[in-house]
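Researcher: I'd like a candidate sequence for this fold, 482 residues long. If you have to choose between options at a position, lean toward the conservative one.
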């Protein structure tokens, strides 16, 4: 192992001395995750400004056997972007690679460096009257490279897909420093394996994404937004089916919100009034968007709500009368994640099951969790339209967060994940695996899947230097096909 001085000297020679952070105070924001749960150490945080510099840094670390953690905006909820506490791992931050390189409004694509924040990418598209449709709460700090590495999803996947669907080209620095460049904006390219998709969702374990060509879509001319009380998760699913039938492709978001999830946000705002009178166990936030006239969309929303009322699925609804209203509705939804942090002690289960099974899953899993601890608050919310909910049981108000998590975290996670697996679902729909869920993968991926994942890992990163300890569970001892 190099001394810290030798390491810093070598890396500074590549990125310049202002591209290396070494004091504890300077590295602190890069070695602790967003939630303050994973606290690691690093001898140096290196901030290359070009792909060439990333390549040289990686080649140097590879040659000297130094582990690396690629980092974007450090907003991972799974501890995927921070080093462990061994103090041996170099953090490679992409924050200086923050240029939008091109917006092509004929091809409807945008070429960006990996360190561009999602909000900057969206603003660049908007400046050219286009939409880059990924929408997640952390857009001001998360970066495109991290969004790709985690295959980020969010609230508009229902309409536009996740990052995997929104990428057309990629530039990646491989674990030995070679650059794999395919910054093409092609919608059709049948020339063999789609290598770029290997790096999407790989959480930086196969290389460092340094640039991307992203899809753009036309900006919708009108939107209609409603905050709707529904009778049950099952009623919500039925309402979504009708919304799709009645509005064509216009349903852009369909977010489920349970009463305990809403309560957290309202409590955080000094027990602010809800958007609807009375208390409802379940609500959905519906957004329609289209290129057509606003009146048509408003009419479609009314038809959807009337259909819901007529069938007994909808109990009440507030329809946004202005952009400000719509923003207010969305703010409530977006604040749920942080509100859990302030309340302390929720057990995050970011799950998905087929939409046809989501309602029965919610009922079954809620009953099973409440049988363990009846006072848990069932903070359940999220992207129901994609079959993805954040199923996050929260400590009873009277219980200490630390003691609650120590007692229930693993038991509840395993219980929920087993039920998800039984429904043919995924234990991580959009947050990835990181450090938090890597030991759970063993339970739910088949031997063949795990072995193939490791074969890919070994082929690209035989020294296991790229984000070690993340995503992949311990290397299996079995060997397939040899
Ligand atoms: C959301 O949909 C995010 O708000 C965060 O994916 C979910 O905090 C969470 O569990
Ligand atoms: Zn989410």
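Model: Candidate sequence:
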């Amino acid at each position: 192992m190099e001394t810290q001085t030798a390491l810093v000297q070598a890396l500074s020679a590549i990125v310049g001395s202002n591209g290396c952070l070494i004091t504890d105070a300077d590295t602190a924001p890069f070695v602790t995750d967003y939630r303050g749960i994973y606290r690691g150490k690093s001898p140096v945080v290196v901030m290359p400004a070009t792909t060439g510099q990333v390549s040289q840094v990686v080649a140097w670390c590879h040659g000297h056997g130094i582990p690396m953690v690629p980092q974007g905006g450090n907003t991972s909820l799974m501890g995927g972007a921070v080093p462990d506490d061994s103090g041996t791992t170099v953090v490679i931050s992409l924050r200086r690679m923050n240029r939008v390189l091109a917006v092509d409004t004929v091809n409807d694509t945008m070429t960006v460096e990996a360190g561009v924040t999602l909000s900057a990418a969206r603003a660049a598209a908007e400046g050219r009257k286009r939409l880059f449709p990924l929408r997640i709460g952390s857009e001001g700090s998360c970066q495109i490279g991290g969004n790709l590495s985690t295959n980020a999803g969010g609230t508009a996947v229902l309409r536009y897909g996740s990052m995997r669907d929104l990428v057309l080209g990629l530039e990646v620095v491989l674990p030995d420093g070679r650059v794999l460049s395919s910054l093409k904006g092609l919608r059709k390219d049948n020339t063999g394996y789609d290598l770029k998709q290997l790096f999407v969702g790989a959480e930086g374990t196969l290389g460092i994404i340094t640039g991307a060509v992203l899809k753009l879509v036309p900006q919708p001319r009108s939107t209609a937004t409603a905050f709707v009380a529904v009778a049950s998760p099952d009623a919500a699913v039925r309402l979504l089916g009708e919304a799709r039938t009645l509005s064509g492709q216009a349903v852009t978001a369909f977010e489920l919100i349970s009463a305990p999830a809403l309560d957290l946000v309202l409590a955080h705002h000094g027990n602010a009034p809800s958007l609807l009178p009375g208390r409802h166990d379940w609500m959905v936030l519906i957004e329609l968007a289209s290129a057509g006239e606003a009146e048509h969309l408003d009419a479609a929303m009314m038809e959807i709500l009337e259909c819901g009322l007529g069938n007994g699925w909808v109990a009440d609804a507030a329809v946004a009368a202005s952009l400000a209203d719509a923003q207010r509705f969305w703010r409530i939804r977006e604040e749920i994640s942080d509100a859990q942090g302030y309340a302390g002690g929720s057990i995050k289960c970011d799950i998905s099951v087929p939409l046809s099974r989501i309602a029965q899953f919610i009922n079954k899993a809620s009953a099973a969790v409440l049988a363990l601890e009846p006072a848990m608050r069932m903070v359940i919310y999220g992207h129901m339209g994609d079959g993805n909910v954040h199923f996050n049981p929260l400590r009873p108000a009277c219980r200490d967060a630390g003691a609650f998590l120590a007692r229930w975290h693993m038991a509840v996670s395993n219980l929920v994940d087993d039920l998800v697996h039984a429904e043919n679902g995924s234990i991580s729909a959009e947050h990835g695996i990181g450090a938090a869920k890597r030991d759970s993968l063993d339970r739910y991926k088949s031997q063949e899947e795990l072995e193939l994942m490791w074969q890919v890992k070994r082929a690209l990163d035989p020294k296991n230097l790229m984000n070690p300890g993340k995503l992949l569970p311990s290397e299996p001892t079995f060997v397939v096909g040899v």
